[in-house]
């Protein structure tokens, strides 16, 4: 490291810098030595942007906040740096140089030599220029493959850590309750078990790579009224406990997540940022979480400006600190001078400052940021000549072949074949009409938190930074002998129908139509999907349904391909399309994955993480509804989906048989053991996704008709059979009873082994015996699956 980034040290190592002592001892000594201003400085971040010349970062001027004077702030220290890579396009190597120089400056400016924690978004990959944009979380859910998601998260985490980032603001563990909500693309699905298992795998991947995973949004954000962003979440404690909280429980208990972000919404009048029962009583006192709670961006100020719960900034800061929020993000506002003055005036006790500070400094100590040998030089720049920024440009590749291959694997496993009359896979078609607004649009594969759409759109003169082949490109490579006619037909949401006649003419002259429809991701109304892009109904945006109907009338087989961030009602296409292929913003390799499925080079194995509605207006609805939430004689509205949760076809067929149950009775603290055979009866390799649902016919409170309690992927060659065994603990039958405690009740249950929530294949009726049994957050969370070759296979 050259002199211009050196951090001065004293010959004698202070107690807080001495690794020979426990973290607790070191942190206590440091807290005792700090002034009030130095303590509070560790509890907020500053939003910055890296320099593309390798110089120090500059404060980012956000339209919701006033400018920040770093020179004035740094002598007392700084808790976090907000998005140094994810604020503006910057070469990764020069961004890393800019960050290390800033970290050296921060450490040198405060008398304890404490650097900042640098955090970034990583919802669909490291959200920085030139980094791989992976499929969005809704695609992770469609894979039903936690091991693959773990591998992906590890790759993302290693890229972030290599350039000096410490914390990632992911995963989103919100369970979809209303698909009209704009942020559905950021979620993993509508089932808490799927969200929990996939989300926990992502957490483990990040944490194994040394990145602090941040669970968001805690809790209730996805249950907002009418799917409107930040709207109140009208729910009772039982829905919160049984649907929305379990993914967070799992990710903390099994994933080792070290940070949680509070949600924006209120539940029954109490905003999450000011909910002490939630952030301290449940999260810490009950679950034992010992990490940091960070604010969603501007969320503490919103206690005053949006919720009307605070009279001034100090009031908002005090409410958040008392509730259990430790760090204000993205920049200093309420935790700055207003909080200092409030403590001095006795409005906010210093004890809540110390409590938050202890958590923040403990995490910094665990990250090595208090060690005497700490260096601001990240691994990717180790040994580089830091005095020659031009020589560094292009040194770091965040979109290498390994990343791209992993991105393609995730995208391939996430493609869901919804329907198929035998048209797919396509057999060397001579003339293909490629129609629709997403057929030749490079960014149609990206979600709203991908760098090109989140930040890059504000820098139109800067190259996108990653290779984004369109579906036109990949299909042309997949079918080199075919003749393509490409017609846009209409825009995503402009309502323009003038191009539809041309699209119909192209369809009539073709052997097959590939209609590529769906969304444009964006933020706050700049897209049809994404944060702040909520919709009134689940009809296809703009004139796309009119285009689709006109294509169906052409007489040519129509393969409908969706590149979207949420499920949409497809009208006549459900019955009349030759095939429907669903993809949820599949990332940089998404069009290659789709082309492979259309040609048959790969066999689809994705399953729906959210139900696809039959009608555009029958919302909110999820498969998790109780009996009266489904079709009934007491309402004229039928919410039955066109394609249910867990649905997905393959290019082969499977037979399920020979169900055996070891014992049909078990005590309320016992388990059931089942075994059955799955056989590939078709002519192609394929993967069946075995899903286990629980139906409780009689319970002391109203229950969903069924809920997912386990799943496993079963890959099989043609003719191959495997014996699948599963052990089901009685704990999985637990729910929140009338007294607010989780209970396992005796009585009959149905264990449904199914290909989807609408396609049960084998059912075991079993009985729990003995007394009611109360369980808590230490209960068993999983059915245990095993596979072996079937006898005689």
From TrEMBL:
Coiled-coil region: none
Naturally occurring in which organism (per UniProt): Streptomyces fimbriatus
Boundaries of every Fibronectin type III-like domain copy: 688-757
Single GO MF descriptor: hydrolase activity
The protein's name in its UniProt record: Glycoside hydrolase family 3 N-terminal domain-containing protein
Family annotation (SUPFAM superfamilies): (Trans)glycosidases (SSF51445), Beta-D-glucan exohydrolase, C-terminal domain (SSF52279)
Gene3D superfamilies: Glycoside hydrolase family 3 C-terminal domain, Glycoside hydrolase, family 3, N-terminal domain, Immunoglobulins
Keywords on record: Hydrolase
Origin superkingdom: Bacteria
Family classification: Belongs to the glycosyl hydrolase 3 family.
């Amino acid at each position: 490291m050259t002199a211009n980034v050196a951090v001065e040290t004293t010959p004698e190592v202070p107690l807080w810098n001495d690794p020979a002592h426990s973290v607790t001892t070191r942190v206590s000594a440091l807290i005792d030595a700090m002034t009030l201003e130095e303590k509070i400085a560790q509890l907020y971040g500053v939003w910055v942007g890296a320099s593309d010349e390798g110089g120090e970062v500059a404060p980012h001027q956000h339209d919701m906040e006033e400018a920040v004077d770093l020179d004035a702030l740094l002598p007392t220290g700084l808790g976090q740096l907000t998005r140094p890579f994810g604020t503006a396009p910057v070469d990764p190597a020069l961004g890393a140089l800019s960050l290390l120089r800033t970290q050296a400056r921060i450490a040198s400016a405060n008398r304890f030599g404490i650097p900042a924690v640098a955090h970034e978004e990583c919802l669909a990959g490291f959200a920085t220029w030139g980094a791989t944009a992976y499929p969005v979380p809704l695609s992770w859910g469609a894979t039903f493959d936690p091991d693959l998601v773990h591998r992906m998260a590890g790759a993302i985490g290693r890229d972030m850590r290599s350039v000096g980032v410490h914390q990632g603001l992911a995963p989103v563990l919100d369970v979809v309750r209303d698909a009209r909500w704009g942020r559905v693309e950021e979620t993993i699905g509508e089932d808490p078990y799927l969200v929990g298992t996939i989300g926990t795998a992502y957490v483990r991947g990040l944490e194994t790579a040394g990145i602090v995973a941040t669970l968001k949004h805690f809790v209730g954000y996805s249950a907002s009224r009418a799917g409107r962003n930040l709207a109140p979440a009208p729910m009772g404690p039982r829905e919160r406990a049984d649907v929305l909280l379990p993914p967070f429980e799992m990710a903390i208990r099994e994933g080792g997540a070290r940070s949680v972000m509070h949600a924006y919404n209120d539940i029954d009048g109490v905003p999450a940022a000011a909910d002490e029962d939630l952030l301290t009583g449940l999260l810490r006192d009950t679950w034992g979480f010992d990490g940091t709670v960070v604010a969603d961006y501007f969320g503490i100020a919103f206690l005053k400006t949006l919720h009307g719960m605070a009279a001034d900034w100090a009031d908002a800061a005090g409410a958040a600190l008392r509730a259990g929020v430790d760090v204000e993000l993205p920049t200093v506002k309420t935790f700055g001078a207003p909080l200092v003055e409030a403590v001095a005036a006795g409005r906010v006790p210093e004890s809540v400052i110390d409590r938050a500070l202890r958590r923040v400094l403990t995490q910094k100590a665990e990250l090595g940021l208090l060690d005497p040998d700490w260096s601001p030089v990240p691994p990717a720049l180790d040994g580089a000549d830091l005095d020659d920024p031009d020589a560094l440009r292009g040194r770091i590749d965040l979109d290498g072949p390994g990343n791209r291959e992993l991105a393609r694997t995730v995208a391939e496993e996430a493609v869901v074949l919804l329907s198929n009359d035998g048209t797919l896979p396509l057999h060397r078609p001579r003339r293909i009409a490629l129609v629709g607004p997403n057929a030749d649009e490079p960014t149609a594969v990206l979600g709203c938190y991908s760098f090109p759409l989140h930040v890059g759109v504000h820098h139109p003169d800067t190259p996108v930074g990653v290779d984004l082949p369109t579906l036109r490109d990949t299909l042309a490579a997949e079918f080199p002998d075919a003749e393509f006619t490409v017609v846009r037909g209409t825009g995503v949401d402009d309502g323009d129908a003038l191009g539809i006649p041309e699209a119909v003419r192209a369809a009539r002259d073709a052997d097959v139509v590939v209609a590529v429809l769906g969304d444009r991701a964006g933020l706050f109304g700049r897209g049809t999907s994404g944060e702040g892009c909520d919709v009134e109904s689940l009809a296809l945006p703009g004139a796309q349904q009119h285009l689709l109907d006109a294509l169906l009338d052409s007489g040519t087989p129509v393969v409908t391909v969706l590149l979207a961030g949420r499920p949409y009602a497809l009208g006549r296409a459900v019955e009349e399309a030759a095939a429907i292929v669903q993809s949820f913003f599949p990332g940089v390799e998404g069009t290659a994955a789709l082309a492979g499925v259309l040609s048959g080079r790969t066999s689809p194995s994705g399953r729906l993480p959210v139900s696809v509605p039959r009608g555009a207006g029958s919302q909110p609805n999820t498969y998790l509804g109780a009996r009266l939430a489904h079709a009934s004689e007491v309402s004229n509205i039928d919410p039955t989906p066109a394609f249910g949760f867990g649905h997905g076809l393959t290019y082969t067929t499977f037979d399920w048989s020979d169900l055996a149950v070891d014992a049909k009775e078990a005590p309320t603290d016992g388990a059931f053991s089942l075994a059955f055979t799955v056989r590939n009866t078709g002519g192609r390799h394929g993967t069946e996704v075995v899903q286990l649902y629980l139906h409780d016919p009689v319970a002391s409170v109203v229950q969903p008709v069924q809920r997912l309690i386990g799943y496993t992927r079963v890959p099989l060659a043609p003719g191959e059979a495997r014996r699948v065994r599963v052990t089901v603990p009685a704990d999985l039958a637990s729910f929140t009873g009338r007294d607010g405690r989780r209970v396992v009740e005796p009585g009959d249950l149905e264990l449904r082994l199914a290909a989807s929530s609408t396609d049960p294949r084998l059912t075991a009726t079993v009985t729990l015996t003995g007394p009611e049994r109360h369980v808590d957050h230490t209960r068993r969370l999983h059915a245990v699956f095993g596979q072996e070759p079937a006898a005689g296979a």
